[in-house]
Amino acid sequence: MNYINLVIGAVIGFHALTYARWLKNNGNILGAIGIAILVLTGLALSLLHMFKEN
Fold it and tell me: Is the pTM higher than 0.85?
């Protein structure tokens, strides 16, 4: 079941990273960096939860 959470997080992360790329292309580099940090944090927490539970 934890793999499903990771896959859902990856799909949401992909959508957020495309938004971050759009922000970067429109001159909002700080916003793009913020979104990228949030996505990486979310994926890292999903992985941590998956490995800590076992």
Answer: no
Domain boundaries, the chain: 2-53
d(CA 33, CA 18): 12
Question: pLDDT digits over 1-54, tens only?
Answer: 778 888 998 999 999 999 999 999 999 999 999 999 999 999 999 889 888 876
15 in Cβ contact with 37 (< 8 Å) = no
How far, CA to CA in Å, does 46 sit from each of 6, 24, 27, 28, 32? 6, 26, 30, 27, 21
> Among candidates 1, 3, 38, which has minimal Cα distance to 17?
38
